[in-house]
C-alpha cells in the first residue's frame, strides 16, 4: 500500500502536476490520498481517472468546501470545489465508514478518518485507515483518539489487523510514541524539494510484518509518497 498528500495537485512552488499519473506510478493495490482537490467546474477528475487506470474503486470523503483552491503560491481563480481524503483500492471492500475527529484548536478544517475493511486472499480481512490529521501541535491527541475508537470497534467485532496511513502531521518519534502501532517507513517526506521532516506514515498493529518499505521519489506534490509491502502474521 502507498500514501500521498496531493497538496491539491500543486508542488511546493505552485506548479501543477498530473494527479492521475502521480497516483498510478505508486504501484500499489491500496493508495491512501490526502488533500485531493476537485473544482466544481473541473473537466477532469484526476482521482477517478487514476482509479479507472488502476482497476480500483475510489472511496472519497469530503473534508470541506473552500471558495477556491486557496494556496498562496497560485492565484485564486479555480472557483469553488472540495478538499477530500480518499482511498483507491484494487482489493474488495467489505465495510466502509468515516470517523469524525473534529476540529483542533486553531484549525478551521474538520478532520476525518476513512476506515475500509478489505478482503485478502484466503478469507483474511484487514482494516486500512486513511487520515489527514491537524497541522497544529495537537495531532498526537487526534491520533490517540482515533486509536481508541478503532480499538473499541475492534473489540466489538472480534479484532481485525489494522493499518493507519496518511499525513499525520507529526515526526516519526511522535507517531511511534502516540499509539502502540509500529512505524514502517523511515525517511523524510516534507517538503519534497528538500525534505526536513517525516510527516507521512504507515503504522501497523502487531498482526503485520513489514516485508519492505520506502520513501518514493517525488510525484509532483510538496510531499513525497511512501509505500510499504505488508504481510499478515496473525489471522483474527
Give a verbal description of the structure.
By secondary structure, the protein is of the alpha+beta class. The protein has one domain (2-232): Deoxyribonuclease I, Chain A (4-Layer Sandwich), CATH 3.60.10.10. Helix content is 17%, strand content 36%. The chain contains 4 helices and 12 strands; from the N terminus they run βαβαβββββαβαββββ. The protein has helices at residues 19-24, 46-54, 139-157, 172-178, and strands at 2-5, 30-39, 57-64, 81-89, 93-102, 111-119, 125-132, 162-167, 182-183, 200-204, 208-215, 226-232. Strands 3-4-2-1-12-11 form a 6-stranded mixed sheet. Strands 5-6-7-8-10-9 form a 6-stranded mixed sheet, covered by helices on one side.
Write the layout of secondary structure elements.
Elements: E1 2-5, H1 19-24, E2 30-39, H2 46-54, E3 57-64, E4 81-89, E5 93-102, E6 111-119, E7 125-132, H3 139-157, E8 162-167, H4 172-178, E9 182-183, E10 200-204, E11 208-215, E12 226-232
Parallel strand pairs: 1-2, 7-8
Antiparallel strand pairs: 1-12, 2-4, 3-4, 5-6, 6-7, 8-10, 9-10, 11-12
Order of strands across the biggest sheet? Answer: 3-4-2-1-12-11
Q: According to CATH, what is the topology?
A: Deoxyribonuclease I, Chain A
**Number of spatially distinct domains:** 1
Termini, distance in Å?
21 Å
Beta-strand percent range: 35-45%
Q: Count the helices. How many? A: 4
Please mark out the parts with pLDDT under 50 across 5 or more consecutive residues, or reply none: none
Helix content: 10-25%
User: Which CATH first-tier class would you pick?
Assistant: Alpha Beta
Overall morphology:
globular
Class from helix and strand fractions: alpha+beta
The CATH homologous superfamily corresponds to Endonuclease/exonuclease/phosphatase
Mean pLDDT: 94
- Overall CATH architecture: 4-Layer Sandwich
Order of helices and strands: EHEHEEEEEHEHEEEE
Query: What is the total tally of β strands?
Result: 12
